[in-house]
């Protein structure tokens, strides 16, 4: 007899809940335990333990409400901070793009200047270019010699005194080894 009773009871409890779900109502209200302060002590005012328990529950409810309000405030603060951070991130990305563009422009200007300098040395007579290069720092002179036309570079090195030519050639070789 207990076996047919169990499905009937389940059906009796499930059908009203299912009907409420189909209607789109909130079922949490059905299962929530709500006791107002006046309902809480009804008939128990003469039991000190019940009164103490009711006061403790009321105090806990107030603390929970304060905690929930504090959490809501923190959520709002976090949302504001997140918005501020997103705006700052966009600003920084924008600044990064403009800095990169300026750096690219400067790099292009430096390349252009170097190309003009190399063209000047390509047009100079080898003896004049050799005289100027021997007075420059060895690494800078080697860089210029690496970039001029090979024939011009050979004539300039031939016009430099042998010790200076050896130093410049070593610098040019060291540069080639350092740059893969």
Structural description of this entry:
The protein is mainly alpha-helical and 180 residues long. It is 84% helix and 0% strand. It has helices at 2-23, 28-31, 37-40, 48-123, 126-133, 138-147, 150-159, 162-178. It starts with a helix and ends with a helix.
Q: Short description, anyone?
A:
By secondary structure, the protein is mainly α. It is 84% helix and 0% strand.
Mean pLDDT over all positions: 82
H-E order: HHHHHHHH
Poorly predicted residue ranges? none
The total count of helices amounts to 8
The percent range for helix content is: over 70%
Strand and helix map with partners:
Layout: H1 2-23, H2 28-31, H3 37-40, H4 48-123, H5 126-133, H6 138-147, H7 150-159, H8 162-178
Helix pairs in contact: 5-7, 6-8
Keywords:
0% strand; 180 residues; rod-shaped; mainly alpha
